[in-house]
Amino acid sequence: MRESYKITLKIRRYDPDNDRSWIQDYHMEAGRILRFVDLFRKINEEQDPTLAWDSSCEHGQCGTCTVKVNGKPLLACELLVEDAVSYFETTIFHIEPLDVAPAIRDLVADMENAYEKVDQVMPYVIEPEPPFEEGNEHPITAHELEVYVDATRCINCFCCASACISSHNSFLGPNAMLATIIRVMDPREREKDKRLKVLYSDQGISRCHSSMACTFVCPKEIDVAHFIALAKEGRFK
Ligand code: SF4
Ligand code: SF4
């Protein structure tokens, strides 16, 4: 087993002050279990303090460090050097910010509009059934939860939205659809009609081409396309 690899990161840079974009090469010897966020930090410390990138939890739970590596959207905090070399069969990695949002600087994207699409579908229980009473927990059985519990692992990292071949302008996106479907399947939600209106609207599942790219890239291993397919079959009407 190799302890380290000579790798090249070809990073898309963006300077908003001069509205200039370019690809910058960074060469380094990288330990096999360094993660890509560690590589960005290493660049800041050893080669270039001006490279901007973003992260928060660095434990695969927040989606802040999502970037595209060799075209695949993924969490930079979860990708180890040795896994990247083996998966992409190369030591050269092209790194770009997500394309669902405009770049603010280098790998940092402005996610506000992307999050607005999720907000639009109201990813929370609007009207609980029965109405919530102070001190009362809302009962939900393991059996009821089982059918959609996988979908609740979504962290809104937007990997699926970035990989989706449908238009980013006309489609609310796979993660927004998933958030809607979770609430349609949630026995506590009374406002199902509102949900169904969004699901079957012009910006809803009719925009999905069933490519399954969303399922393929989801770092939480959610079969997003399966949930969308259930909606397409009319299971929730
Ligand atoms: S299956 Fe549908 S939602 Fe998922 S990536 Fe393909 S087109 Fe987008
Ligand atoms: S469904 Fe998966 S890929 Fe899409 S936002 Fe949620 S966690 Fe990320």
What would you note in describing this structure?
With 237 residues, the chain is α+β, with helices and mostly antiparallel strands. It has 2 domains: 4-109, Ubiquitin-like (UB roll), CATH 3.10.20; 112-232, Fumarate Reductase Iron-sulfur Protein, Chain B, domain 2, CATH 1.10.1060. The chain is built from 9 helices and 7 strands. The termini are far apart. The relative contact order is 0.13. It binds iron/sulfur cluster (SF4) (2 copies). The site of one iron/sulfur cluster (SF4) has 15 residues, from helix 5 and helix 6. One iron/sulfur cluster binds next to helix 8 and helix 9.
Notable features of this structure?
237 residues, alpha+beta, Ubiquitin-like (UB roll), Fumarate Reductase Iron-sulfur Protein, Chain B, domain 2, 2 domains, two-stranded antiparallel sheet, elongated
What is the element string, with H for helices and E for strands? EEHEEHEEEHHHHHHH
Considering DSSP H and I runs of 4 or more, what fraction of the residues is helical?
25-40%
What would you give as the CATH superfamily of the largest domain? Alpha-helical ferredoxin
Strand order of the largest sheet: 2-1-5-3-4
Q: What is the name of the CATH class of the largest domain?
A: Mainly Alpha
* Biggest sheet layout: 5 strands, mixed
State the end-to-end distance: 54 Å
Low-confidence stretches: none
CATH arch. level architecture of the largest domain: Orthogonal Bundle
Q: Count up the helices.
A: 9
Mean pLDDT: 94
CATH topological fold name of the largest domain: Fumarate Reductase Iron-sulfur Protein, Chain B, domain 2
Q: Count of DSSP E strands?
A: 7
When the domains are counted, the total is 2
Using only CA atoms, what is the Rg? 20 Å
Describe the global form. elongated
Secondary-structure class: alpha+beta
Bound molecules: iron/sulfur cluster
Instruction: Tell me the fraction of residues in β-strands, as a range.
Output: 15-25%
